[in-house]
Structures are given as structure tokens and as C-alpha cells.
Amino acid sequence: MQRSLNTEPVLRLEAVKLTLMSQAGPVNILNGIELVIRQGEAVGLVGPSGSGKSTLLMVMTGLERPSSGKVTVKGKELSAFSEDETARFRRGNVGIVFQSFHLIPTMTALENVAVPLELALEANAFARAREELTAVGLAHRLDHYPSQLSGGEQQRVALARALAPRPSLLFADEPTGNLDGRTGAEIIELMFKLQRERGSTLILVTHDDALAHRCDRIVRLRDGHIDAIEDGMQLQPTETPTAPAEAPPPAEAPEMPLAAVAE
């Protein structure tokens, strides 16, 4: 069943291109990406290796500047910002969960989650960090260092850190790629649960098709461009079809099974 979504765009990409130089000459990584994502929506970015999905995430978050085109987040065009302004804007509006956790090894779980809050000059940074760790089931691990935590626990800390500033957008780049299947499934359930509860927009990079179907829409990438967009289980090509699509079967399709992401 489709969720009722806010129709207000929170992220817009217009004719976004990214070209990088190599010894062999220029390499086109992204080729004219056009995409609008709404507030509260969950969107899966899917594609084979080298399709540009992780690079697209970097461009969406302002960690990589496009060669041309516009990236607008919450009505602000990122190209108009300096690097420092982009970092400040990202700190208050964007949370990112990486495959490799990227926790600070010399800090406890509580300190890791408190870092973005302290940078934002939150007066109650550690109280908020404690709340976030409790929300991901780690109230008993506050004073443990990353080396003392399992992979699943480290990713829970990373998720708590990403969500602590209460961002409008949550990005996850293969968040279960370093986890076993059971632990990965638990992380995915937790991530979707918190995203729904808080009304955040989720952009999930994955190579797992069943996992992508947990999202409201699936954006399929190939060779740096959008190959197709799926809304629910119905394929919607990016090009206008010459003939109307066939009507869906009367029986409701069975729910897709949850699958963990494993390299």
C-alpha cells in the first residue's frame, strides 16, 4: 500500500552532469540527470557497478560539485554556496550513513553521535545523543568505543549520528554492505521505521532489487543517466511511451520479501 506523501519537492536535480579528467581523457560520470524527490519520500537508487549511483548521492549531498546543471535542496541551489556554506547547510539538513560506518575510533558511541550536535552548537548535545542511541537500541553501549562494538552496533551508531540533527534528508550508501544478512535486515528495518516516524526523506543506494522495492520509488541508473523510474511495482519509463501501459492485474501483487544487502 502506497503511503500518503507530501508533494513539496525537497530535492531537485536539473540537467546535472559530472565529467572527470583521466589520463585517457574526460570521463562522463553523470549525463544530464533530471529528478525531483518529495519530502517524506523513500527513493532507492539502483544500478550496476559504475552506473553512477554513489556519485549521484555525493552530488545530491553537496560532497561533489557537478560540472554543470543545478542541484536544489530545500529551495537552496547548492552551487551558490561556498564550501564552508555548503558544509553548514549540510550539517543542518542532511544526514549520511556510509557502508564503512566512518566512526571516530578514539570516541565512544555517545561522543560520536554528539559530534554533529556540538558542531551545530546544540546546548544539550549529549542528552540528544543519548536519546538517539536509545532509539536505535544502544542505551547499554553509550560508553563503548567502535572497536568494542559489533559491525551491526557500529552501523546503529552511524545511523543515530546521521539522525541526531533531525535532518530533512537521510542518505544511505549501501548501509548493510559490510554486515551479515540477519544484521543487515535489522538495520534496514530500523532505518525505515525511523524515517517513517520522523517524516524524513530517504535516498538509499543499493544493488539489491528486493531492498529497493521497500522504497516509494526506484530510480534505475545506467551509464550515468536515469534508465527508468519505478513507482511501486509499476515500471514508468523516463521517455513518454508511444502506447498506453497495460492495466495492472486485478489481484493485488504479493508483498516483496525483505532481503539484506550483502557484498
Q: In percent, how helical is the residue content?
A: 25-40%
CATH architecture of the domain at 40-66 and 80-235: 3-Layer(aba) Sandwich
Q: What fraction of the residues are assigned to beta strands by DSSP?
A: 25-35%
Contiguous helical run count: 7
Structural overview:
With 263 residues, the chain is an alpha/beta fold. The chain has a domain at 40-66 and 80-235: P-loop containing nucleotide triphosphate hydrolases (Rossmann fold, 3-Layer(aba) Sandwich), CATH 3.40.50. It is 29% helix and 28% strand. The protein is built from seven helices and eleven strands. A seven-stranded mixed beta sheet has the order 6-7-8-3-9-10-11. A four-stranded antiparallel beta sheet has the order 2-1-4-5, with helices on one face. A hairpin with a 2-residue loop joins strand 1 and strand 2. Helix 3 packs parallel to helix 5 (151-163). The longest helix has 18 residues, at 181-198. It is globular, with a radius of gyration of 19 Å.
What's the arrangement of secondary structure elements?
Layout: E1 9-22, E2 25-38, E3 42-46, H1 53-61, E4 68-73, E5 76-77, H2 83-93, E6 94-97, H3 109-119, H4 125-135, H5 151-163, E7 169-173, H6 181-198, E8 201-206, H7 209-212, E9 217-222, E10 225-231, E11 234-237
Using brief descriptors, characterize the structure shown.
4-stranded antiparallel sheet, globular, Rossmann fold, 7-stranded mixed sheet, 263 residues, alpha/beta, 11 strands
In short:
The protein is an alpha/beta fold and 263 residues long. 29% of the residues lie in helices and 28% in strands. The protein has a domain at 40-66 and 80-235: Rossmann fold (3-Layer(aba) Sandwich), CATH 3.40.50.300.
